[in-house]
Write a structure and sequence with these properties.
heterodimer, A: about 290 residues, mainly alpha, MetI-like fold, 2 domains, about 70% helix, globular, B: about 300 residues, two-stranded antiparallel sheet, flat
């Protein structure tokens, strides 16, 4: 019991395997390398473009890699931002506020709901979870129109909350959290119950610290959505608009902006990628329990 | 009967903590997911322009969709084409790459996972494909083909109908190794290793037999989860189409159900009609998922 259950999982990770022929491995790794190049080269190209002087972005024949790296694009970007009517820091604040509030709220709400679904027995449990699973099977596009009406009834149009509040109830997060919590040993919870702890206390002091890998997974999945939000059509005021929205105006601003566009794209993509690099092992640990049981 | 209810009621009272914990999430879920689905279905039988009260018109929106709206038929054709290609290809790609990556040493495995997963979390970086397939000779595709002498003049990749669909499929595939891929990576790492050793003793001689007889059956839960994710995204193509081919695209060559929905919902304000498009999309998504779930239950049985 002193051993966290995640260790059991790690001990299953293998390195050497039986039944492996050299040529089989060679062939498969070649395939992997080829497609890996397909995946990564567009990103490499995007990164290199950010450091290319304009005459290199428009060079014939085009080059993948930068020859004379420069920070001019970033300086251009700064100048461009300095001229914008709404100070650029405001867009950054908007996106940070939406992302942080949305992510924190989502982790707490989804975990609180996942705990009884994973560990309690009560009437309606199965039906509630089934509805959540069904909701994984369609995208928000389906509900866009009525969602606008609901937002307007609630008076949330043109405010951050129109993006933040629905993000709290993102269903993939609840699903993954519930599947992960199911693996927690019951003995851990029983012991606390015998000590007289309430369900809320058990949730906060025992369950939550034990599902840290799953938090990180919810954080990165939700972060990536909110970081890239353009306001979902709910936000009109320029001073409330998101970073992504402002960046798109530069990106689709035409040839003169090609350098600055590459720079802003690099900045925007580096944040979720960095976050993933640092949380990868925890995310994989959570995903191990993602399976759908019959 | 009243006895059954009072029994349930007592059970519910005993578990009131469970409901309290569930309440915040479930209330929001009901308001922002369940209610809108129901509203959308009701609105699909009305004429509604956001100003006047919705007017009930029966099945008219649906008959208009299938009998009068030629562009909707293009949208359905494209959506199905995208889904039939990107759905299975991305699903198999997620699994195959996860399976090969799983054979690597832990450090290399982490690196290759990042390589394959990175495009799907890079947000709007897919606009880089606009520069790769740009219509002038500075685009990578044109530049390369011109240099090799295969082309004599640049091709307007994203303006010619015959190329648009293929390019969107390519980019959609590039973006598709997301959550499902991670679930497979994770699932492969948890297959009990002793099964492989036992299999070797029982006469499994190569990795292909091992894959078929041991790995796939032990991963069925992840395979089902991955299928849901890949199917749902493959039916929802819109952002890539709008970013690359424009909105509307040349001759509606890249119109999908979702872009058609956006057209009627946010440009023309025909909300009843748009709701009927949404309802059809909902039925297609849910139906495909439920059928595939049924099929996957049979894997390895």
């Amino acid at each position: 019991m002193s051993m966290p259950f995640s260790f059991k999982l790690r001990s299953k990770l293998r390195s050497k395997r039986v039944n492996r022929s050299f040529w089989g491995s060679f062939g498969l790794f070649t395939v992997l390398a080829f497609f890996g190049a397909f995946m990564i080269l567009p990103l490499v190209y995007a990164i290199n473009n950010a450091f290319k002087p304009l005459d290199e972005i428009f060079l014939f024949p085009p080059t993948l890699f930068v020859r004379n790296p420069t920070f001019n694009n970033f300086i251009d970007l700064m100048n461009l931002l300095g001229e914008s009517w709404v100070p650029f820091s405001r867009y950054i604040f908007n996106t940070l506020f939406i992302t942080l509030t949305g992510v924190i709220g989502h982790v707490i709400f989804a975990s609180a709901a996942a705990f009884p679904l994973a560990k309690h027995r009560f009437p309606g449990k199965k039906a509630l979870f089934q509805v959540v699973v069904l909701s994984l099977m369609f995208t928000p596009a389906v509900t866009a129109i009525p969602n606008y009406m609901v937002m307007s009834w609630l008076g949330l149009i043109d405010s951050y909350w129109a993006v933040i509040v629905p993000a709290f109830s993102y269903s993939l997060g609840l699903y993954l959290m519930k599947q992960f919590m199911e693996q927690m040993p019951d003995a851990l919870l029983e012991a606390a119950k015998i000590d007289g702890a309430s369900e809320y206390r058990i949730f906060w002091t025992i369950v939550m610290p034990n599902v840290k890998p799953a938090w990180l997974t919810l954080v990165i999945l939700q972060f990536q959505i909110l970081w890239g939000t353009d306001g979902n059509g709910f936000i009109y005021s320029e001073q409330l608009k998101s970073l992504h929205f402002a960046a798109n105006q530069i990106i689709y601003g035409g040839i003169a902006r090609a350098g600055a566009a590459a720079a802003v794209a690099l900045i925007l993509m580096s944040v979720p990628i960095t976050l993933f690099v640092f949380s990868q092992s925890k995310i994989i640990e959570t995903m191990a329990s993602s399976g759908m049981k019959e | 009967m009243s006895n059954w209810w009072s029994l349930k009621w007592n059970e519910m009272k005993k578990n009131k903590h469970s409901y309290v914990l569930l309440a915040p999430y479930m209330i929001l879920f009901a308001v922002f997911t369940v209610l809108p689905v129901i509203m959308s279905m009701i609105l699909s039988f009305t004429y509604f322009n956001m100003l006047e009260f919705p007017k009930f018109i029966g099945w008219h929106n649906y008959s208009r969709l299938f009998l009068e709206d030629d562009i909707f038929l293009i949208a359905i054709k494209n959506t199905i084409l995208f889904a039939v290609i990107t759905g299975p290809v991305s699903y198999i790609a997620c699994f195959v790459f996860a399976w090969i990556i799983n054979e690597l040493t832990p450090k290399l495995r982490a690196f290759m996972t990042l390589v394959f997963y990175a495009p799907s979390i890079s947000g709007n970086v897919f606009f880089i494909w606009l520069m790769i397939f740009s219509g002038d000779r500075y685009g990578i595709a044109n530049g390369f083909l011109l240099k090799l002498g295969i082309l004599m003049e640049p091709i307007q990749w994203l303006k010619e109908e015959k190329y648009i669909l293929a390019i969107i499929i390519l980019v959609q595939l590039w973006l598709s190794l997301g959550t499902g891929f991670l679930a497979f990576i994770a699932g492969l790492q948890t297959v009990d290793r002793s099964l492989y050793e036992a299999g070797a003793v029982d006469g499994i001689r190569n990795r292909w037999q091992e894959l078929w007889y041991i790995t796939l059956p032990s991963m069925r839960p992840q395979l089902m989860f991955g299928a849901v994710i890949q199917i749902t995204t493959s039916l929802a193509v819109a952002d890539v189409s709008i970013a690359l081919a424009g909105f509307p695209s040349v001759n509606y060559a890249a119109e999908t159900i979702v872009t058609h929905l956006i057209d009627y919902g946010t440009t023309r304000f025909e909300m009843g009609y748009a709701s009927s498009i949404a309802t059809i999309l909902f039925i297609i998504m849910l139906g495909t998922n439920l059928i595939v779930q049924k099929l996957l239950r049979k894997v390895g049985e």
